[in-house]
């Protein structure tokens, strides 16, 4: 039995290696997005994630930009946003409505059924207590001088949904360059490998920064360490974060400047990045010292060679992704680069496999942005390039978070539903106070928006923020999870 188990493990590892070394041109059009040019904007870049750390790969030739995220990089802090006496206006609001005086009722609602203070900041809450989900930072690799000019041939940028792997490949002046990127859940790191088929052909500068509130320093371990503390919205210090990047090379040399690393004449390079915050809340790692945590994460990851890290990523990702398969016919349009494929489809070209690609991409994004024990996928999933993300990158309870998790049960990803279910549970206690304040009612309530700080009050404008159905809609997910799992322990918990 022991020998049989060993044989199975060897066959699995061999199959992963075959997958990783396979011909990129043979990619499955139902599980691969690919392009023959770099991304020119954030929405064209390729998303990677392990539920907590996110990365968006642009694939630039002369400069590679990778936008980095960590799911608990949130500004803001806990606040008392309820209006304790709001419920006293309810009898008069009801009387006016029954009397047909909608205008008078509306005035009372607007005066009472909003939160105290600034609420979401009109969707721009980065500097107010509600807070905002923010970019962790930008990792940039600037190539040159030998990589900065020359004829480019055979460019291909690809996201393999089956493995959670982004790959960039091209030939420059006869030298073949490749980059592989992934975010590992087992090893809690973002990983990049750069290679060329000519010895000494890799030269580049590495920087790590963000638009505000950061310091980046180098150390003698060939690392960049970026640290900072976010705004709590109340004149104090909020969440502290750390991102630590370590560069490992074969051949060539590394030089350090104050805030950057310079690689010259390398054959290959592997970049490992760990990220952490000291966010303490209803989910997440609950780390007190993010700087120490990133050191520990990297020290553990660096003991494994690149291929071992990649196999562990493959194994973990496919545990989720391979639970469902949708097979739809492939046509000539299916073989085009994804951008041209979409144009062809819009013009009427038959391509049933495109629906399968969309289906698989949706599953992929949930797998990459929501893992047990972590924060749930927000309006951005886990991917954002700004300090002020649209609508604060929060959790909207009036359909958005529900849509994120619609695939969870029907696609056999029940465990990935857990972060949302824990978010619901976290709102019960603050929601009890909100229910008492606004409705003089038992139970709990949440309205349209929430954040990692337990916000359950109406928004700052009653026209949208006083919607009372958010918590009821959320509870539908509790029942759906039970309906699919028939887990009596969960039912008792819920």
Overview of the molecule:
Helix content is 31%, strand content 25%. It is of the alpha+beta class and 494 residues long. It has two domains: 2-74 and 132-321, Beta-galactosidase, Chain A, domain 5, CATH 2.70.98; 86-115 and 394-493, no CATH class. The strands form three sheets. A nine-stranded antiparallel beta sheet has the order 1-6-7-8-9-16-13-12-11. A seven-stranded antiparallel beta sheet has the order 2-3-4-5-10-15-14. Strands 17-18 form a two-stranded antiparallel sheet. Strand 7 and strand 8 form a beta hairpin. Helix 2 (90-98) runs antiparallel to helix 3. The protein is globular, with a radius of gyration of 25 Å.
Distance N to C terminus? 41 Å
Kindly report the average pLDDT value: 94
- Tell me the strand order in the biggest sheet: 1-6-7-8-9-16-13-12-11
The CATH architecture of the largest domain can be named as Distorted Sandwich
Return the CATH class of the largest domain. Mainly Beta
Number of helices: 13
In CATH terms, what is the fold-level topology of the largest domain? Answer: Beta-galactosidase, Chain A, domain 5
Number of domains: 2
Could you name the ranges where pLDDT drops below 50 across 5 or more consecutive residues? 1-24
């Amino acid at each position: 039995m022991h020998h049989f188990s060993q044989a199975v493990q060897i066959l699995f590892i061999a199959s992963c290696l075959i997958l990783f070394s396979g011909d990129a041109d043979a990619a499955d059009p139902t599980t691969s997005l690919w392009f023959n040019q770099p991304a020119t904007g954030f929405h064209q870049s390729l998303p990677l994630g392990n539920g907590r750390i996110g990365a968006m790969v642009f694939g630039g030739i002369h400069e590679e930009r990778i936008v980095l995220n960590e799911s608990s990089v949130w500004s803001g802090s806990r606040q008392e946003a309820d209006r304790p006496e709001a419920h006293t206006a309810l009898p008069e609001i009801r009387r006016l409505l029954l009397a047909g005086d909608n205008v008078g009722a509306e005035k009372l609602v607007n005066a009472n059924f909003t939160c105290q203070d600034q609420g979401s900041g009109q969707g721009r809450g980065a500097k107010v207590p509600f807070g905002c989900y923010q970019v962790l930072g930008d990792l940039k690799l600037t190539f040159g001088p030998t990589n900065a000019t020359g004829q480019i041939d055979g460019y291909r940028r690809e996201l393999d949904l089956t493995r959670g792997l982004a790959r960039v490949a091209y030939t420059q002046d006869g030298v073949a360059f490749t980059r592989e990127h992934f975010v590992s859940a087992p090893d809690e790191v973002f990983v990049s490998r750069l290679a060329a088929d000519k010895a000494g052909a890799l030269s580049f500068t590495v920087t790590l920064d963000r638009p505000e509130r950061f310091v980046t320093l180098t150390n003698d371990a060939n690392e960049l360490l970026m640290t900072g503390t976010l705004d709590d919205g109340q004149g104090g210090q909020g969440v502290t974060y750390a991102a630590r990047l370590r560069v490992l090379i074969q051949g060539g040399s590394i030089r350090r400047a104050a805030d950057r690393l310079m690689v010259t004449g390398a054959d290959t390079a592997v970049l490992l990045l760990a990220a952490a915050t000291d966010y303490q809340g209803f989910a997440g790692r609950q780390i007190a010292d993010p700087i120490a945590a990133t050191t520990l994460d990297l020290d553990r990851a660096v003991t494994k060679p690149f291929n071992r890290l990649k196999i562990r990523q493959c194994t973990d990702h496919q545990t989720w992704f391979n639970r469902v398969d949708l097979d739809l016919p492939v046509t000539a349009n299916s073989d085009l680069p994804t951008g041209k494929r979409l144009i062809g489809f819009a013009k009427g070209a038959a391509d049933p496999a495109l629906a399968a690609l969309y289906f698989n991409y949706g599953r992929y994004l949930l797998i990459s942005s929501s893992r047990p024990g972590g924060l749930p996928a927000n309006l951005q999933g886990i991917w954002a390039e700004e300090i002020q993300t649209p609508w604060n990158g929060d959790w909207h309870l009036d359909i958005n978070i529900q849509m994120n998790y619609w695939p969870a049960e029907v696609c056999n990803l029940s465990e990935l539903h857990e972060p949302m279910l824990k978010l619901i549970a976290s709102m019960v206690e603050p929601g009890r106070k909100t229910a008492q304040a606004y409705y003089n009612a038992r139970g709990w309530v949440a309205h349209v928006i929430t954040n990692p700080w337990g916000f359950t009050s109406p928004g700052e404008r009653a026209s949208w923020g006083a919607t009372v159905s958010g918590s009821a809609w959320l509870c539908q997910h509790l029942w759906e999870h039970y309906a699919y799992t028939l887990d009596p322990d969960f039912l008792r918990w819920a």
